[in-house]
Amino acid sequence: MGSYRIGVLQGDDIGPEIVPQAVAVLAAAQEVSPGIELEWIDMPIGARAYAETGYTLPPGTLERLAGMDGWILGPLGHAAYRRDDPNAVNPHPLIRRHFDLYANIRPSRSIRGVPALHEDVDLVIVRENNEGMQPDRNMHRGGGEIMPTPDVALSTRVITRRGSQRIARAAFEIARARGETRRAAGLAHPCGERPTVSIIHKRSVFKLTCGLFVDTALEITRDFPEIDVDDFHVDSFAMALAMKPQRFDTVVVTNMFGDILSDLAAGLVGGLGLAPGLNAGDTYAMAQATHGSAPDIAGRNIANPYAIIMSAQMLLAWLGRKHSDPAALSAGEKIERAVHATLARDRIRTPDIGGGATTDAFGRAVIARLRQEG
Ligand code: ATP
């Protein structure tokens, strides 16, 4: 029996509306999947935690998370946190760093019938998560930005051989798994029969940092002879992604470029409401949608819970692979089928993708599908 302890951190604004939908969908998947047991542990984080405890990341949270198998993190409205209080930190970079969640895996997939700029897109961006340009996580102590004078500001970019090796290996393994899934289903990817990893960089300018990233990723290719590799300068990749996203399969990229490109990729297939994500390391994983806390639509029961539901689905599938647990893998597949049937066949959609369904109604419809199809 695969038994997993999952933390639930609802987050801010739309977080308390969408995260319970993800929990309810996983709980329903558990009902129809004998052999897995999920235990849920609710933990405060963000603005609610601050109001209750004086901390956006209450003391003891990291220690408690360490006793779990994974967790679901709702979006955090950190831009609205107090700037004059060191206890009002943005928690998610700290969590990513503390648990060494070095891979941010962000798929973009077209869904039949859902209006979008492109059809037949099926790509995944594998973004390095803990170094690069991000000043809140790229230093051991201190921040990666400094102001030597009031009129000069500097940013530091950190690229390491180890960080590049790990993210490249993660990307090649994902490409391999995607290839196997397609082969098993008898499907071809528009970019060709063989899985492909695209390495994104700007080594013509960042000769040392992007140079180290690309050279290290190319060394990893030797262990994956069945996978094709190409590489693009980030600017020409951005154009190619906007014009012909169907030609990409698995994309490996440094932190900041990856953050920008994954929002662009989400925009091509229907927007942020359809953009799930997983932060994964070797020991832990955290489900976290690509989108922020969407304060502009909070409290109206109209946010799209797809992204967080599918992020939680990615967590379950990650646990299934990690523990070689067929029941968790099968539950993950059931969720994926139910969610896509709800959108494509039942045409139940939230307003961001042209529908009229509420957040709750979408969650209920996915659960009904799961129960119906078992
Ligand atoms: P962050 O910097 O924290 O990632 P952001 O500034 O990119 O946040 P979001 O909170 O992601 O901003 O919101 C961007 C836009 O996307 C807003 O108009 C918001 O309403 C919309 N949006 C984000 N998530 C969803 C969702 N799940 N469902 C519907 N609309 C969403």
Give a description of the structure:
This protein has helices at residues 15-31, 46-53, 61-66, 91-98, 161-185, 209-220, 234-243, 255-268, 306-322, 326-344, 359-373, and strands spanning 2-9, 36-42, 70-73, 103-109, 122-128, 145-149, 152-155, 196-201, 228-233, 250-253, 278-280, 285-287. It is globular, with a radius of gyration of 20 Å. The strands form two sheets. Strands 2-1-3-12-11-4-5-10-8-9 form a ten-stranded mixed beta sheet, with helices on both faces. Strands 6-7 form a two-stranded antiparallel ribbon. The protein is built from eleven helices and twelve strands. Helix 9 runs antiparallel to helix 10 and helix 10 (326-344) crosses helix 11. The protein starts with a strand and ends with a helix. The mean pLDDT is 96. Helix content is 40%, strand content 17%. It is an alpha/beta fold. The site of adenosine-5'-triphosphate has 12 residues, from loops.
Short note summarizing the structure:
With 374 residues, the protein is an alpha/beta fold.
Give the overall pLDDT as a whole number. Answer: 96
Element string (H = helix, E = strand)? EHEHHEHEEEEHEHEHEHEEHHH
Dominant shape: globular
Output the strand order for the largest sheet.
2-1-3-12-11-4-5-10-8-9
Strand residue percentage: 15-25%
Layout of strands and helices, then pairs:
Blueprint: E1 2-9, H1 15-31, E2 36-42, H2 46-53, H3 61-66, E3 70-73, H4 91-98, E4 103-109, E5 122-128, E6 145-149, E7 152-155, H5 161-185, E8 196-201, H6 209-220, E9 228-233, H7 234-243, E10 250-253, H8 255-268, E11 278-280, E12 285-287, H9 306-322, H10 326-344, H11 359-373
Parallel strand pairs: 1-2, 1-3, 3-12, 5-10, 8-9, 8-10
Antiparallel strand pairs: 4-5, 4-11, 6-7, 11-12
Helix pairs in contact: 1-9, 1-10, 1-11, 5-6, 7-8, 9-10, 10-11
The structure holds adenosine-5'-triphosphate.
Adenosine-5'-triphosphate binds next to loops.
